Fold:
Amino acid sequence: MATVLERAPSLGGLSRVARRSYRLVADVPAIPLLIVAALTFVAIFAPVLAPHGKLTPVKPTPEQCQAKFGTPSCPYVDNLPPFWFKGGSIDTPLGTDFLGRDVLSRLMYGARISLVVALTGTLFAGAIGTLLGVLAGYMGKWWDQIIMRVTDAWLTLPSLVFAILLSSVRGPGVWNVVLILALVFWSRYSRAVRGEVLALRERDFVKLAEINGIPTRTIIFRHLMPNVMNSVMVLFSLQVGVAVIIEASLSFLGVGVPPPEPSWGLMMAQERESLMDGKWWLAVFPGIGITMLVLSANMLGDWLRVRLDPQLRNR
Amino acid sequence: MRRYILVRALYSVVTLWLLVTIIFGLVRLTGDPVEMKAEAGADAAYVARLKHDWGLDQSLPRQYLSFLGNLLQGDFGHSFEKSLPVRDIYFERLPNSLKLGFAAFVISIVLGVPLGMLSALKVNSWWDSVGKGIALFGLSMPGFFVGLVLIIVFGIQLGWLPVLGKGRSAFVGSDPSTWVLFWFKDWSHLIMPAFALGWYFSGAMLRITRSGMLDVLGSDYIKLVRLKGVPERMVVAKHAFKNSMIPVLTFAGLNLLIIVNFAVVIEVIFNWPGVGQLLYDGLSNRDFPMVQGVVLMSGLMIVVLNFAIDVLYGYVDPRIRLSR
Structure:
């Protein structure tokens, strides 16, 4: 059972704090962590790292224009293949899209949208859901009835359908997608948190706090909230991946992030036409981006779940 | 027991009512459908007539009450766009969704359950890593990406399978000869969308099966059976298998409903005429009754199923029915 402790190598020379914090992260799965770190790095420094702009077409060379249009100058060359195909150029390593924009640069900016939207959306959902869950669990009675019945109704609708419905209320937009994610996913948290609080409420430290006349607000924020944080964090880490997929799906359907912003889902949708012409890479690259991000997020989430819940070791 | 069922039934009704109310409100927030149908500068009389025909000239509380009243009689209203009863349109499309859904469901079971079993029986082995890997990929690769890759490989590069539509077979209510044949025709159209749809759920199925099986294998009664010297094959086949299937079955029922009702993205990619597409089109046309109808039908199915599961669980496990 104590795999984590056994596996950590001895760190005799280090201070206790350093040893503790090392043990905490000693068995983080390395590859997903690297992928997430790399994507985050790319997302933050996209304007510096990207070879071209995200919205403006790449200025083509005379040879490229000659090959495509038969004239020495042209505003842009669309659908250039990646550099390892014939006609590709190292200047645009993954080719250009249907408007002559650099695919690699757009993918980098796309990482930014995916990460920001998924993280903030999930964060808001977590905050709303946790608060409502604690209220329902601790206050009981009508609070519980009302909040939980709404939660039930909310959970009846699968997330994507609910998201599509909400998106047609708000219209496309990056921050609208964040809002939608928050509105769709809070119910996952309130359900889980309420269950935990029901058990915590009966514990001695809460009872003692009540007897001592500590105000309800203090009990909720100082005594209950810290104790449900473990499950909230696990749920959060597992929801981020789902949020990325929902954002991509909404953008793919044309109701999420609006063009010309380079959302991965939108990029895939825009290239469905060129797919039929055999230019498969244009739709596949963003798809790989989404899959890698969600895969690593899920793996990290699984790790965190096992780390914070000893009962799940060896699962 | 009777009290437990009554309370659960009451909860279900309240959930449904809340759902109806939420949907009613949300749909009306999406904008004015009359504006969409009648272009700018259209005849005022025409606009007024549209409003009157669609019942949008009444006050919101009245609209809500008549909507509720009609629902109680099983009437979902008339589609704005097609001027047909929503119920008829929905049930015309439902067989297509069921066909796609069943195929995806079968794929998810066939892929997920045996692999999940294997993974649990050889826990922490090579098989287990493979199983876990597949489950992770299933849950991480969006269905529309799987769909596009399938289209690229089998539809375009190899040219083996048709890319769009469901084929020419149709389920016609008035023609009994189509009732059976419909399910067995045009498989080439079905394979890709069903796989793209079933992909995600096979990952989920694998996980549930694996953890269910692990739970059972770690329990005391299995230890006892092993102590008695029963061969391992029999332990699994006779004692562990049945019990490990309880969570799988619960989950599978819910999954089937979700697959059937909400394959929106897959239906859009493959141009599959199911209920998901109905919802998508309804939303883009602001066809209120259509959207309400589709969402409520699926909500109804899920609430009824959840109620049935609750009752079954309460029946099997006295702790559950006494604790509420």
About this structure: The CA atoms of residues 128 and 182 of chain A lie 8 Å apart.
